[in-house]
Task: structure prediction
Amino acid sequence: MTGSAEELELKERLNLIETMIAEGRRTTGRWAWIFVFWGLAYYVAIAWTALFHWSWAWLVTMMAAWILSWAIQKMQRKQPEQKPSTTIGRAIICIWATMGVSLTLLLPALGFSGRFNQPLFVAIVAAMLGTANGASGLITRWKAQFATAVVWWAASVAACFASEDQSTIVFVVAIFFCQIVFGVYAMVYEARLRKQETAHA
Amino acid sequence: MPEPTEPHRRIFMTANTEEQELKDRISLIESMIAEGRRTTESWGWIFVFWGVAYYVAIAWSAWGNHRVPAWNITMTAAMLVTFGVVVWRKFGGTQKSQPVTTFGRAVTSVWMAVGISFMVLIPSLGMGGRSNSNLVVAVIGTLLGTANAASSMILKWKLQFACAVVWWALAVISCIGTHAQSFYGLLVANFFCQIVFGIYGMIAQSRKQKECRAGQGVSHA
Result:
């Protein structure tokens, strides 16, 4: 009796974890627009710097992107269909928030100290994005997201050995696959799940 | 006083069940958070071990005869030992391993991802000729700050978040400070956030194990 009760409890616990993992993927899916949005923001900053050689282009674009994404997510939260976050969803948000804080502290500090250059910037940003995507991919057991982490880590290594122009190309390619393509894929995945839910309801 | 009607009774019962379910869910989440903290505490030795490894590498590179490979050899040795102990604990350990909770899995994922970034970025910076001691310390501070902050936010653990703040401060100091400031900053941060925090985790874990054994003794008696 006790054995079967324990087994049942274990099964219930496993079911709960499975549900939480699925919900965690959905959390990433709901935030997929932010991958595409930030991917485009990086492109704007790269193009602005390359075409007009204005040293503040990155700072202005990143600040504008941050304010816009904050406003959009505020509006998104007001929507009535917004679901409460799960443990895994909260863990993923924590990872991305701490990654944001780390980059906000490190990159300006490097800039002020005069240690900043393009390959170093790409290497650090790619490693940090690899960390966040890798951790999220491991938590949600999402191979596609872990693959984006591998691409970011490869970009980080490549940037360490590359020239200024080469590192920019590496960054542009990594953004395309890991932000734009993965973001669109996650949006499609979330929309498909929402359709299935509506059909079942 | 009129008797409650059938629909009223049903609404009251549903509300009661929902409240109970909510309470159960909250207590489950709380127990999972506690279990996640225990997971971190059970890895307290690894904080101490890496803290000592950093000190060995620092001392060797500062005063040793073979200064160039000091960091590479020490870090590779530390990684191999960690990997060996992790494998032994998982597959061949004498202690029966506890089932992993969602929180424990989340924290493990964070540390694994940070570990991979470490292994990828720091040697590449060195081999690519972009490395200098200030930059390496800044990168170490940023990565360890991220890992500690994410873990502490997941586990709602203020002490670990304080460690994250120290690591982040070290990253900023290493960027804007001198070589000596960065060096002493690393020594201090390593002492508090690896050695002291690791020992605290080990003590907390052994205390809980003792309490657990005492509890089992009472139940057997």
